[in-house]
Design a protein that fits this description.
Blueprint: E1 3-6, E2 9-12, E3 33-39, H1 45-52, H2 57-65, H3 69-86, E4 100-101, E5 107-108, E6 113-120, E7 123-130, E8 134-140, H4 155-162, H5 167-185, E9 197-198, E10 202-205, E11 208-217, E12 220-226, E13 232-238
Parallel strand pairs: 3-13
Antiparallel strand pairs: 1-2, 2-13, 3-7, 4-5, 6-7, 8-12, 9-10, 10-11, 11-12
């Protein structure tokens, strides 16, 4: 883990995997999945505007249309995490102008790059991969009326939840897996959640297998779904709520 100040923000880096046990600061791991996450904290207006100015005009307009600052910040941070991840593949922020949308509304980039963004309460998480389809989801573990979601679960899944001491944690663990799968597939709820079969470490949906990776994010459940097994790195970025003086070293 290390700390570094760059252009007004600070980040912490957590390495969870390496290639061949070695790494180099000059190496670009093109065959690795990068996962970035951040907690939403309200930014000073000047900092917020500085980050917004980095976005394409359509993204700027989307951010400014939110009524709640939490939603505006989550949208912005999701894109900032995406920019950070794309740097690992040699791209800069200008590539955001090339984001397209499928008929199902899923954003994508050409050049064999796939990405997915999710947020829940104060958590924003983004996954970026090369030559691999991915989906990611996160949820804050909190009490809800689980019975309202019974129809979306298979009978054995419902029984498993009811048999656990912490039914909410078990529910969100299952739910984020299913959501990650349908987001990776790209058709969203056109795939019924109760048709997704969860196995040990993977899921099956309409005859296709998806690898599942549980991500440890404290009070949040999170899952990554991929169509191929790959190494991954997960990093937390902490955005400063204030501008750092320009005299501070990087």
């Amino acid at each position: 883990m290390y700390h570094k100040r760059i252009l007004g923000y600070q980040f912490l880096l957590y390495k969870q995997s390496k290639i061949n046990g070695r790494e180099s600061k000059n190496t670009i791991y093109c065959e690795m999945i990068y996962i970035y996450y951040s907690m939403v904290r309200r930014l000073e207006e000047a900092v917020l505007q500085e980050y917004i100015n980095q976005m394409p005009f359509d993204t700027q307009n989307k951010i400014m249309c939110f009524h709640r600052w939490q939603d505006a910040h989550a949208c912005l941070i999701g894109r900032l995490l995406l920019i950070e991840g794309l740097k690992n593949y040699g791209f800069d922020s200008e590539i955001l102008q090339k984001i397209k949308y499928t008929p199902y509304g899923r954003p994508y980039l050409k050049k064999n790059i796939d990405f997915n963004i999710a947020h829940s309460e104060d958590m924003v998480i983004c996954g970026i991969s090369n030559k691999t389809k991915i989906g990611i989801d996160t949820e804050l573990v909190r009490p809800i009326e689980i019975k309202d979601f019974k129809s979306q679960l298979r009978s054995e899944e419902w029984s498993g939840i009811m048999g656990k001491e912490n039914i909410y944690k078990e529910f969100y663990s299952l739910w984020t897996k299913k959501e990650a799968v349908i987001k990776a597939d790209g058709r969203g709820l056109f795939i019924p959640l109760n048709k997704i079969i969860l196995k040990d470490g993977y899921a099956e949906a309409e005859g296709k297998k998806w690898n599942l990776i549980n991500l440890n994010l404290n009070e949040y459940e999170a899952c990554l779904a991929t169509d191929a097994e790959k190494e991954y790195v997960i990093k937390e970025k902490k955005f400063s709520q204030q501008l750092f003086p320009s005299s501070l070293p990087y």
